[in-house]
Amino acid sequence: MTDDYSMLDLFLTMLWFFLWIMWLFLLFRVVMDIFRDHDLSGWGKAGWLIFCILLPYLGVLVYVIARGRGMGQRDIKQAKDNDAAFRAYVRDAAGTGSASHAEQLAKLADLRDRGAITEAEFQQAKVKILT
């Protein structure tokens, strides 16, 4: 370090740098939320985007004040949708192990009654389910 750049100056530079990074994250988050919102019309999205580009500090501040609650609700909804999709994928990948034996036997009996499988196939599948 040089003599004219003190530890306080280094600290303040680092502080401003991290605040700038946080500002960029907030700006990108607001822009992503503008396009994620299905309630806004195309002109509304264009207006908010232009406002955030031309006057970024004021635009983001006004957007967060005016639509901040909606941002949180959309985040929660997206998280729930992602969780539901993940759980459905896991259930699908795991197979029919979540169905009870009674449900599987009922499906087999229905197939047998409709004539889709023979009595021998029914008995064979029933043994396979019960073991």
UniProtKB/TrEMBL annotation:
Predominant cellular place of this UniProt entry's protein: membrane
The organism's place on the tree of life at top rank: Bacteria
Domain (Cardiolipin synthase N-terminal) ranges: 21-67
Topology in membrane: Multi-pass membrane protein
GO CC terms in record: plasma membrane
Subcellular location as annotated: Cell membrane
Protein name: SHOCT domain-containing protein
Species of the source: Streptomyces smaragdinus
Lineage: Bacteria, Bacillati, Actinomycetota, Actinomycetes, Kitasatosporales
